[in-house]
Each structure stands twice: as structure tokens, then as C-alpha cells.
Design brief:
about 270 residues, alpha/beta, Lyase 2-enoyl-coa Hydratase, Chain  A, domain 2, four-stranded mixed β-sheet
Length: about 270
């Protein structure tokens, strides 16, 4: 599809998705949510894409929901949940749902949905001086996009409660100190570092990466025994696949692996 509020490009096996409303500090709209969902689906179905990087145009990652219209938080009356979620600018596809690793390159301020959406990515790199704010309670609403479970599992309840309950503003460096980002860097280094990290996935078997990602996200809600059972089912399956043999041979022969399996073609139906 033709995008008007994001830019989606694929180069060297990396899909870079850029929030592209710099004149409005990349504020989030229904159209942006729809385009982001489509771009994530496209990356998921493209075997040439090994990783996804999401960033913002200009000096801001995303300043939150576009508050320029009175209908920003107007709840639709449609009977089906999907339509009502779309009316509130919820994406239909989240980064954690696709089978490729997704890196949020938070190159500037991330407010409201700007940070809750980023929390749904697998890895976060953040600008040290970026303003980060779960501003919802200061707008009379509550955090969304699974924030309550993700924050609690990643940072622990005591630390997680701070940000969504106070709505206070912190810097990117503090986000990293709380364990909610992997690295805090000067703003100009965030995207290059994210792209360099994305290149690391070229060395990993794509189906193995996809399955491991699914298990990691399932662990947010599953118990230890449930995850162990899923891990064994997956481990037993991957051991019988050609990429397992290739991984061992390439290591012994001291060469780069030539992965044979495709996420689009070979991803197993084992984790329902």
C-alpha cells in the first residue's frame, strides 16, 4: 500500500519503519496505526527481512496521540471489538505478534502511545536526553497496549508502578536504568546502533529466532511449567530440521552458516 504517515524501506535484510509526521512530532493517528500494522505484516511475510527497526523522523520518536481533534478519545459505537479498537487508533498488529525481531530506535521524545508502542518491541535503544512519559493519567485516561503486564514483568511491580501511576517525565537514561531499554545513547547514535544490532540477526537461523521470540513473549503470561513444555516441544522439533545440522556443520567448518529454512514456509504450527 502507499503510505502517507510512515516510511517503510527494506535494505540489507532490514525493514526500517519511520514514523513520518515530523511537523506534528510524529503524533499518533488512526491512519498511522493502520499503516504501521500493514508495514509490520509486510515485514513478517517477507523472507528477505531478517529484522525490523522502528524510528521517528526528525528529532522526536513519537509525541503521543494527536490531540488536535476533539474526537481523539471518542469511543466508537460499533458492535465489534476490532472496529472500536481501530477508532481509538489501536494497531491491529503489534510488534510482538510478528515473527521477526523488532527494535525500537527511540531517537527522541516518546510520550504516551509513543512509549507504550515501543514497549511492545523486542528491544529498545533510547536517546539519553529523550523525554519519556506515560502521560495517560495526566490526561484522564489509562495506559494501553498491554502496558500493565509488560512494565510489571520487565521492571517489577514496584518500579513499574512509578511511571504509569505518576505520569512523570523521565529521561531516556533513566528508562535504561530501570531496565526498560537496552542502551541509552546520544540521539544521533540511536538509529545507527539499532541498524548495527539488526545486522546481527543475519547470523541466526530465522525460524529459530521466530520460535524463540514467541516463547519469550508467551512467558509474560505463562507459568514456568507451561513455558518448559513449549520449549521442549520446539526443541525436539528444531533438532530434526536442516538448520540444526547446518548450524553444527558451519561451526565445525568455521564458516558462515547458510540457513535453508524459511519463516514464511517452515514456521511450525506447534504453539497454539
Amino acid at each position: 500500500m502507499a503510505y502517507t504517515e510512515i516510511i517503510a524501506e527494506v535494505s540489507e535484510g532490514i525493514a526500517t519503519i519511520t514514523l513520518n509526521r515530523p511537523q506534528a512530532m510524529n503524533s499518533w493517528t488512526r491512519q498511522m496505526a493502520h499503516e504501521m500494522s500493514e508495514a509490520l505484516l509486510a515485514a513478517d511475510s517477507d523472507d528477505d527481512v531478517r529484522a525490523v527497526v522502528i524510528t521517528g523522523a526528525g528529532r522526536t520518536f513519537c509525541a503521543g496521540a494527536d490531540l488536535s481533534g476533539a474526537s481523539t478519545f471518542e469511543v466508537g459505537k460499533a458492535p465489534d471489538l476490532e472496529t472500536r479498537r481501530a477508532s481509538l487508533a489501536f494497531p491491529s498488529v503489534m510488534p510482538w505478534q510478528i515473527r521477526k525481531p523488532v527494535i525500537a530506535a527511540i531517537n527522541g521524545h516518546a510520550i504516551g502511545v509513543g512509549i507504550t508502542f515501543a514497549m511492545n518491541c523486542d528491544i529498545r535503544l533510547v536517546a539519553q536526553e529523550a523525554k519519556i512519559q506515560f502521560a495517560f493519567v495526566r490526561r484522564g485516561i489509562t495506559p494501553e497496549l498491554s502496558s500493565h503486564v509488560i512494565l510489571t514483568r520487565v521492571a517489577g511491580l514496584a518500579r513499574a508502578a512509578d511511571l504509569p501511576l505518576t505520569g512523570r517525565t523521565i529521561k531516556g537514561s533513566e528508562l535504561m536504568e530501570m531496565g526498560l531499554a537496552s542502551k541509552a545513547l546520544p540521539a544521533e547514535e540511536v538509529l545507527p546502533e539499532a541498524l548495527q544490532l539488526a545486522r546481527e540477526f543475519h547470523q541466526a537461523a530465522p525460524v529459530s529466532v521466530a520460535l524463540s521470540k514467541r516463547l519469550l513473549w508467551d512467558s509474560l503470561t505463562d507459568g514456568v511449567a507451561d513455558v518448559d513444555a513449549k520449549e521442549f516441544k520446539i526443541f525436539e522439533w528444531v533438532c530434526s530440521q536442516p538448520d540444526a545440522l547446518e548450524g553444527v556443520l558451519s561451526f565445525l567448518e568455521k564458516r558462515a552458516p547458510q540457513w535453508k529454512m524459511s519463516v514464511k514456509r517452515d514456521y511450525p504450527d506447534l504453539l497454539k
